[in-house]
């Protein structure tokens, strides 16, 4: 499978920077590695980054893009940077933290499961998966597998993984930051659904009627 070297370089930099923020927040490498769960968190982050190298996800605007939704990317970027650093900082300071090592390991588990759920649809969609809200050339509606249950499995994975990251640092502030991802995600989902509804018409309406938008059984 071919690797997009520009995207690969961006992924490597992003993973390294994210882990560096966490180490910095914890007060250095020695403090960070004092917790086995955080070592596992770093290893899972690296593994997910390696897996991402072999996806075909992109930032293509395709045939048609809702450019008015690009503000969501800026929010994701800001909240993402805060999540990289702040939970680790509050962990070191003992500010609004809770639980012990069991909470950390629960966080690692959720981060791994959420990360896998986040990246699996990128493999499924291939070049049709764009970081922008856009219809791609030869766009087809996928309605089986994970998409047969929830219409946005990758976004569900993002929320689960960010919650897991916060819990790995036992951070109440981190949980609040993870919750801040929900409003822009919902805005992005509505934008995508509008485009897909226009493209696929009654086929998409029927698909919406038999699946959940984000949380199975809830929403």
UniProtKB/TrEMBL annotation:
<keyword id="KW-0472">Membrane</keyword>
<protein>
    <recommendedName>
        <fullName>Isoprenylcysteine carboxylmethyltransferase family protein</fullName>
    </recommendedName>
</protein>
<keyword id="KW-0812">Transmembrane</keyword>
<keyword id="KW-1133">Transmembrane helix</keyword>
<feature type="transmembrane region" description="Helical">
    <location>
        <begin position="102"/>
        <end position="120"/>
    </location>
</feature>
<dbReference type="InterPro" id="IPR052527">
    <property type="entry name" value="Metal_cation-efflux_comp"/>
</dbReference>
<feature type="transmembrane region" description="Helical">
    <location>
        <begin position="71"/>
        <end position="90"/>
    </location>
</feature>
<dbReference type="Pfam" id="PF04191">
    <property type="entry name" value="PEMT"/>
</dbReference>
<dbReference type="InterPro" id="IPR007318">
    <property type="entry name" value="Phopholipid_MeTrfase"/>
</dbReference>
<feature type="transmembrane region" description="Helical">
    <location>
        <begin position="38"/>
        <end position="59"/>
    </location>
</feature>
